[in-house]
Amino acid sequence: MELRLEIAQSWRRAELSGLKPSSPADRLEVRDIDTSSRLLRAATPVLDEIARHLDDTRLCVVLADRDSRIVARRFGNRSVERVLDSVSAVPGCQFTEETSGTNSIATPYEVRRGVAVHGDEHYLEAFKQFTCYGHPIVHPATKRLEGVLDITGLVEDTNPLLGPFLAHAAADIEQRLLDGSNQAQQRLLAAFQAAQHRSSAVLALGEDVVLANSTAVDLVDACDHALLREVSRTRRGVRRLRLSSGTEVEVRMEAVSVNAGMLFELAPLRPAYPTHVRRRALGGVLPADAEERLRRSSLARRRVLVAGEPGTGRTAATAVLAGAEPLVRLDAADVPVLGEAAWCERLEELAAGHPGLVAVRDVHLLPAVLAARLARLLDTSPAWFVLTSGPLTDLRDEHAALAARVHRRVELPPLRERRADIPALARTLLGGVPGGTSLRLTAGALELLAAQPWPGNLRELETVLEEAAQLRSAGDITARDLAPSCQVSAASPQLTGWEQAEHDAITKALAAVGGNKVHAAKQLGISRSTLYNRMRALRISG
């Protein structure tokens, strides 16, 4: 059978994910859904009206949310309900191309446009009995995908008019979403106006609205918004927080009606005893404790090993250690070009004659023989050395023995473990790119950056900011400016500690097996469908 291009491409994506046409469709994971969500409130009247038109037909309409998880169904005939139940098309079940192949929920979700899938065009054998039309629901104001609306029937009920009918219904839901947003914003504004004259800082955060009195403007930085949103999702009432400025505050949190937003009242605290807040040096990109250890080592001219993933700031750490002393670098990656003998000769020459800091970069790439020779040189030479390497846990044999020869080891964490620092780091890095000093990152842009996985660490973040700066010569960099380089869907609630651990375990397993999801699931000791579900929930692409 010759497939249409968009269907053939969908089949290819499903195949690459490890899904087989014969895979069962009755074992997909079902989770609880939010029955009071904004999408459901906006869609329910439209779904009820559609159900009236579907009466006595063999058609059903299905609504999925922004995670492609079914949240509502309406039927013209109960016989179709039983058929859909048999293939897991039930509320709480997530339909993605990785788990369910080509269909009119998963494929519109993937390609962000309306798609019709008829009979044999479905990837899974279990779905070939259906004809279906799916259309994405996009919020008119934010342009974010809110869900997918689908109408499904048996193959013999195929009707080309169902496509336009469904598109019109999706447009009605989008308009109701917009109207609901306007009402929510009005309620949030009313709550803020009632509280803004209090002596403390008052901040109101809606989905797309930020309101602040003059005290809050001075106290709360835009990069604190993500922290406040995260805290409000798990707790209400009063608690203490430390803002990005280092100021400790007491925060009173209050929900404004249903999904309208949160009202925050913040009051700085006077500590009962003196405290010392470690702050990153102006313009620095290293963690404050790492930078402090490097500066102490510099004063004593101690030998240091700086370890970490590529892009975590190893070069910056070397510069901090050198301080005002002359710095010369020798890269282990140059061994294949120079040859082992010439590389060793250069190393010994620097150890004997360079008056400042000798940096040997990426020592984990050295052949075992050269690693051993460098270790012996560290034992016999008085020269001041700094070595850089990959993560300490990855060092083995001669490279581990080499690491043991230095006085101090400083390991730089990957950027995904420094999410609270990302807003401040982004501002620092933006100031260093061409034209960046005249630009400002909005709160939405900072939240989007903080939600990214950043496998390339600081180097990748700097590249993204440089590309965004090229699009603007002045003004604000918004989330939309970052969208070409960042996953917009990642700007969902930040991960909890446990979810972050899950995220890191899955990405590490995928990297270890070259992205093969079947092998990754086996290595993690979970089923393939569970892996797909967690990848989608944690916004892991691949």
UniProtKB/TrEMBL annotation:
Lineage: superkingdom: Bacteria
Keywords assigned: ATP-binding, Nucleotide-binding, Transcription, Transcription regulation
Domain Sigma-54 factor interaction: 410-470
Gene3D superfamilies noted in UniProt: 1.10.8.60, 3.30.450.40, Homeodomain-like (1.10.10.60), P-loop containing nucleotide triphosphate hydrolases (3.40.50.300)
InterPro entries: AAA_lid_NorR, GAF-like_dom_sf, Homeodomain-like_sf, HTH_Fis, P-loop_NTPase, Sigma_54_int, Sigma_54_int_dom_CS
Protein's name in the database: Sigma-54 factor interaction domain-containing protein
Source organism: Prauserella endophytica
Organism ancestry: Bacteria, Bacillati, Actinomycetota, Actinomycetes, Pseudonocardiales
